[in-house]
């Protein structure tokens, strides 16, 4: 599979969970195609679901030669290890997956702030419950999750406060970068309040933004902006009403 081209299947028009995979592919300099952005891409993504002996439940789906598999954290771990974006020892690989999966937990909770009752119901049909869920997420869950990563940065004996794992960049830092980006979009007031409490996380976010391949990607038309159709949505009524704007 060394010469295989990577095909990412994810819905066009939203960053979503596919963005976590895109960032790893871009940072790795992989030869890849975003199938959803091609003509007829939405149908191609839908057609990919359910195919093969082990069908995917939902995108993102990655196709590498004859290999087809899904789940964003699973794909990112595979790519990170394949492209050497994590040390090769077992402990490092497991710990990197731990960080990636922790980010996935936060992403799921962020989604549930605007769909706390039912995924298939409109946001407008569950606004009261969303306000309650969002308040808990802003005041309790975001500080707890980002505070965890802040402690990890400080506790890493070889990272100098800059790296999650070891003495250099690893792929889960891309996931943390995207998480912070999404939270700043969805909850700008709350994040202005929380950011000073997690200076290491915010500094890491800026360093990732400045990595040459990530910076080039974010300035390209391939990078899809946040909007109110994806995981991270900005509804002012769900943001922190007491934060200084």
UniProtKB/TrEMBL annotation:
Coiled coil: none annotated. Residues 89-226 form the GST C-terminal domain. Pfam families: GST_C_3. It comes from the Bacteria. One of its GO terms (molecular function) is glutathione transferase activity. GO terms for biological process: glutathione metabolic process. Gene3D superfamilies: 1.20.1050.10, Glutaredoxin (3.40.30.10). Keywords: Transferase. Signal peptide: none annotated. Residues 5-87 form the GST N-terminal domain. This is Glutathione S-transferase. It comes from Corallococcus exercitus.
């Amino acid at each position: 599979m060394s010469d295989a081209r990577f095909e990412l299947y994810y819905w066009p028009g939203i960053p979503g969970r596919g963005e976590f995979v895109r960032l790893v592919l871009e940072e790795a300099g992989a030869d890849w195609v975003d199938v959803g952005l091609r003509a007829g891409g939405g149908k191609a993504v839908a057609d990919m679901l359910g195919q093969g002996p082990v069908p995917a439940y939902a995108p993102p789906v990655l196709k590498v030669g004859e290999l087809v598999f899904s789940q964003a954290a699973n794909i990112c771990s595979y790519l990170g290890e394949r492209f050497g974006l994590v040390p090769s020892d077992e402990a490092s690989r497991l710990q990197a997956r731990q960080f990636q999966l922790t980010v996935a937990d936060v992403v799921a909770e962020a989604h549930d702030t605007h769909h706390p009752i039912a995924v298939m119901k409109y946001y407008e049909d569950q606004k009261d419950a969303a306000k309650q869920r969002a308040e808990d997420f802003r005041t309790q869950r975001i500080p707890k999750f980002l505070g965890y990563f802040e402690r990890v940065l400080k506790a890493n004996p070889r990272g100098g406060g800059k790296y999650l794992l070891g003495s250099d960049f690893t792929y889960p830092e891309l996931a943390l970068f995207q998480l912070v980006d999404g939270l700043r979009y969805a909850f700008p007031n709350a994040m202005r309040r929380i950011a000073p409490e997690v200076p290491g996380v915010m500094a890491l976010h800026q360093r990732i933004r400045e990595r040459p391949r990530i910076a080039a990607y974010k300035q390209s038309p391939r990078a899809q902006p946040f909007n109110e159709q994806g995981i991270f949505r900005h509804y002012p009524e769900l943001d922190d009403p007491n934060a200084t704007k």
